[in-house]
Amino acid sequence: MTVDSQTARRIERAGETLQRVRDEVGRAVVGQKAMMDRLLIGLLTGGHVLLEGVPGLAKTLAANSLAKALSLRFRRIQFTPDLLPADLTGTLIYNPREGTFSAKKGPLFSNLVLADEINRAPAKVQSALLEAMQERQVTLGDETHRLEDPFLVLATQNPIEQEGTYPLPEAQSDRFMLKVKVGYPERAEEKEILRRAGMSEPAVLTPQASREQVLEARAALETVYVDDKIQEYALDLVGATRRPKDFGLALDALITHGASPRATLFLVRGAMAHAVLRGRPYVLPEDVKGIGLDVLRHRIQVSYEAEAEGVDGEEVARRILEQVRVP
Questions:
Q1: Which of 123, 196, 230, 251 is 20 to 30 A (C-alpha) from 78?
Q2: Structure confidence by residue, pLDDT tens digits, 171-204
């Protein structure tokens, strides 16, 4: 493997830029480093992120702080049962004086969109959001409007409240590159949160990168070297979710449907972004394993037997990552 010095330096610069962004966000968000890494990976790859965690874990603060540190436009949409698709996409406004319609663009026309509690909105609204995520465009009347790059959707859902919710179907949750489980802070981190709560003024964040630098980092991502063995490893991991017996895994009874081809693409691209965050111009198996659980946990549908044993898609993915041979 040989990587020319110019490519290596370009990726190193992208890694340094993202590190500055991460440090700046850390002035507002205590801990949650794994979540911040995943948000940056989503930003680099253009893959949307589903955040799952109980209320109060700084999910909204992290998204807002990331936008400020990157000089990007940010909109938060609180999903509720009475939300309409037009509340996201916008609508046409009639001008009676001129007899014409003009487009009033909705909150989707931003760089970072936080869809808060996505599972509280009905299927029509979820579909409108997911269409914009996939096509990177919104149609109002007869006119189609392209969404500006970068465009990233960060959706949150509460795992402990199911009353009055509309869970995302598997085919729709598959559109999200990553599903990130956001956990409680460590004791020392929570003490720091207490200390900061007593401060009279919250931290004012300074932009550490421009939109152009974000796009440059995305371009640098495409130059990361991925060896054929790494690609084969990603194919093995996804293949093991579909045909576990072929890989010597006793998981057939636990899985009804394995991961889709999107999982293979996202595993490799996520690993490439994982390498860029570390300023490295090539992918290691550790990069694939580092992002593997977030890519696979929501793409494996488990059987009734698995549910009876308390085994979910995350546990199946963890066993696969532990047992499939690393190149």
A1: 196
A2: 778 889 999 999 888 899 888 888 887 666 777 8
